[in-house]
Structure prediction request, 662 residues.
Amino acid sequence: MTKLNRRALFRLGGAAAAVNLATLPVRAEDTPTTPKTPLPPVEAYAAPPFVDEIALSPDGSRVALVTQGGDDKVIMHFTVDNPQPGILTLGPGKIRGLFFGDNQHVILINSVTADLPGFFGNRHEFSSARSINLETGDSSVFFTKENGFHSIVLGSLQRVQVDGEYHVTASNYRMLAGGSICLYRFRMRDGKSQILAAAPATTEDWLITPEGHPLMLSQYSRSSKQWELYYNRAPAGKSTQFKSIYTSEPGVGLSLLGLGRDGQSAIIGFDDDDGKGEYREISPDGILGASLDESADELGRYPLFHPVTGRLTGFARHDDAITYDYSDPLLKKIAEGLSPTIGPDYRLAISEFAEDPRKVIVYGESAYDAGTYFFVDFSTGKVVTLSANYPNLPEEWITQKTAVTYTARDGLDIHAYLTLPPFAKPVDLPLVVIPHGGPQARDYIDFDWQAQCLASRGYAVIQPNFRGSAGYGGDFITKGHGEWGRKMQTDLSDSVTSLAAQRIVDPRRVAILGASYGGYAALAGSTLDPGVYRCAISIAGISDLKSMIGFTIDNSGSDRARSVLYWKRFMGDPKTYDDISPARQAAKADCPVLLIHGSDDTVVPIDQSRRMEKALKAAGKAVEFVTYKGQDHWETVGSHRIEMMKTVLAFLQKHNPSDDLA
Prediction:
C-alpha cells in the first residue's frame, strides 16, 4: 500500500500580484539560508505527480484515483470515512481520464498510438473507455460488442440517469454504409448498450441532457469552413429528429459547451480567425442571445455548469489562479467557503462535485505545498486530506514563482513568471528561458515541476506569456499572428534583457528550453535570434514549417481543417516558411542544441527532430539527439520523463553550468 501523504492545511504563500521587472527588488545583501534537508533527487520533481486522475462518486461517499505503482498504473479507491484503499492493478498504459459511472463503477479512459482502418493520415492517438466494477474488479470495454466499430471512443463521455438508472454515453465512428458518427449509452448495471442517434461523419459535438436525451449536435464543413448546429425536435425516448437551426460565418469556430439556463437552449463558444472568442446562448429555434462574458478586463473565462442539472451557472476566471463566479446561490456559497475551509493562502481549484454539491474534491497549492487533494463536505464541515502530488519533495525546496511584467522592444507589456533558486542570492544567476507550448496557450503561477527542478539546481527560470498567448484577450492573441519566429521570439530574449538590467541574471549564462511550440522557440533561439543563448534544448519541437503543415493536412484529411488553419494563422505567409524554419536555417545556429523526442508523438512527429539533427550535422554544428521509445507528446511515460530531465541537466551542466549544480 502506498501511504497517503497528509500535509498541514494552513501554509504561507499564495498568488502574488504581478510586479514590474524594473522595480523587482534585488537583495544583493541577503545571506542565503542553509537548507536543513539534502538536495532532493531529480526523481522528487520529475516523477509524475502521485495523483494522475481523481474522481468522486455521485453520492459523494467514495473516491477513486489513478497513480503509478512501479511500472504499472493502479486504481486506488476508498470511502471518505475509511481511507484504507482497495487497489486494482491496471498494467502499463496511458491514462487520459477517470470518472464514476455510478456509485460502484468507474469509467477509465486510456489511449494508444495506432493506425486504424477508416481514419485519415498517419498514426493517431486513439482513446478507449472501460467500465470497471470496484467491488469485483470486472471490466468491460465500450464498443467491443457493437457491430461496425473499433473499440475506441471519439468523445461525448457523460454520466446520465435514465428511469433512475445510471448510464454513460459515448460516441464512435461506425464504418458501415459509408460511415457515420453514432451516439450510444451503456448501462452501468450490466453493460447493456443502446444507440441513441446516428449522424453524418462530419459531426463534431453532441449536447446531451442529464437524462440522456441528445439535444443538439454540430457539424463542420471543411469546404466552406462553416459550422452548422442542429436541434433534436423529438421528445425524450423517441427517434431523433434533428433540424438545422444555425450556420456560422465562414472561418468562425463553434463549440457546443453545455446546456443553457433554461435546459433547452445551449451555450456556444465562438472563436474567429483572429483568435477572438465569446460565449453566447442559442435557443432551439436558432436565435443567438447577447454575449455572456462581457467584462472590463481581458482575463480568460470559461463557463461553469451545474453538477446535477447541467445548466449554465456562472463563469470561472483564470488569471494567475482560478476564481469562481457562480450564479447558483449554493454553489456560490461553496466557492466562497473554499479558502476559509482549506486555508487563506492556498490557490484552490474545484476538481469535482458530487450530486450533492456540498460534497466536493478540491485541489490546492501554496508556498510550501506542491499540490494536495482534499475532500470537503460543507454540510458537516468535514475535511479529509486525500493525497499530495509530490510527497517526496521537502517543503523548503519548493521555491516561489513570482508574477512579473516586462516591456518588449516594441513597447508591448509581457506577463511572465519568475522562479528563483532557493538558498541563493538573486544576483547574476544563470538563467533558463522556458517558453510554453501552444502557442495559443499560457503558463500560470501553479507548481511547475520542471522549473522547480531547475531552480533547485541553481538556475533562475523565466516563463514568458509572449504575444499570441491565451488569457490576455483577443487582441493579444492576434498580435502573435504572423509573428512566429519574429516578435514572438524576441519577446523571449527581451525577458533576458530585463532580468539582466536588474542584475538578477548573468546575460552570458542563458539557456532556452521548451516543448512543442516551446521546442520550436528553443531551436529558433539558436538559429534566428543570435547571441542570446549558450545552448538550446528542444523537446518535441517543430523545425520545418512546411513539413509540419503537410503532416497536419495528411492527419486531418483537409487543408481546411481547424488544426491546419490554426497553424497558418500564427506562421504567417507560406512564402516565408523557410526563413523561420530552424532546420532550413541550421547554418546560423550559434550554440549547441539538444533534441529530445518520443517515438509515439502524434502531435509533432519525430521526423521534425530528425530533420533538425540532419541539418545541424550537415552544417557542422554541435547537436545531440535523444529518443524515447513509446513516449508521447505529453510525456506520459514517467520513467522516460525522469531520464529526460537528467539528460537536460547534464546538457546544461556541460554548456551552461550553474555553480550550485550537484
Remarks:
- Residues 57 and 103 are 5 Å apart (CA to CA).
- The longest strand covers residues 505-515.
- The radius of gyration is 25 Å.
- Confidence is low (pLDDT under 50) at residues 1-17, 22-31.
